[in-house]
Amino acid sequence: MSDLKLGDKAPDFDAETSEGNINFYDYLGDSWGIFFSHPADYTPVCTTELGTVANYKAEFEKRNVKVIALSVDGMESHRGWIKDINETQNTTVNFPIIADEDRKVSDLYGMIHPKADDTLTVRSVFVIAPDKSIKMTLTYPASTGRNFDELLRVIDSLQLTAYNKVATPANWKHGEDVVISPSVSNEEADKMFPKGYKEIRPYLRMTPEPELKK
Ligand code: BEZ
């Protein structure tokens, strides 16, 4: 089984999807990416997850994120199920779903965890930066639907901290204070953070969220 770690390059692949054949890197282009697997078509939790992701289109676009899903079901199954998702979740699925019947891509990304289920993919998520490095991974069991607000929150943190010498504290949300990286001296912080900062401890300095640089 593949053992992809943070910082690893996301493997490229070609695949058949509900929006035609794609090359993964071409699909992502210069955007951030969310690549997620779900166990099976025509299942209740997956139906709500894919509907939720489709309804978050504007949120992903705002953050320059492209989304792509995968299951080991085939294209005919995907087509029928997408109709169901659209009808039941009041949406239009607006991202490709990979039909990975031969498990080529699932194996490449380690999305099958044989002790959980030896044929179906678990609920994996990979967040991929524009340079194609893996920035976040997450694995949920089949019985637990993911929280896509949390994924947006992580993307906000990743994008903010990629371009500023800050980190985001527990339960942080966009707009709230952030912490200054320990590698930044107070002298540097004075220049870097014009809104000022509060030194609670020498290693714990809070500053208002900086403007998002790109
Ligand atoms: C679901 O999406 O509802 C589901 C899929 C596989 C196992 C259990 C639940």
The Cα radius of gyration reads 19 Å
Number of strands: 11
Could you tell me how far the N terminus lies from the C terminus, measured between alpha carbons in angstroms?
35 Å
Q: What ranges have pLDDT less than 50 throughout 5 or more consecutive residues?
A: none
Largest sheet: 5 strands, mixed
Helix content: 25-40%
Active site: 46
Protein name: Peroxiredoxin
GO molecular function: peroxiredoxin activity
GO biological process, one term: cell redox homeostasis
Architecture overview:
The chain has helices at residues 24-28, 44-55, 57-62, 75-88, 104-108, 148-163, 186-192; strands spanning 14-17, 20-23, 32-37, 65-71, 97-99, 123-128, 134-140, 166-167, 178-180, 198-201, 204-207. The chain has 214 residues and is an alpha+beta fold. It folds into two domains: 8-146, Glutaredoxin (3-Layer(aba) Sandwich); 164-207, Antioxidant, Horf6, Chain A, domain2 (Antioxidant, Horf6, Chain A, domain 2, 2-Layer Sandwich). Helix 2 (44-55) packs across helix 4 (75-88). The two termini are 35 Å apart. The relative contact order is 0.16. The chain binds benzoic acid. Benzoic acid is lined by residues 39-40, 43-46, 142-143. Keywords: Antioxidant, Oxidoreductase, Peroxidase, Redox-active center.
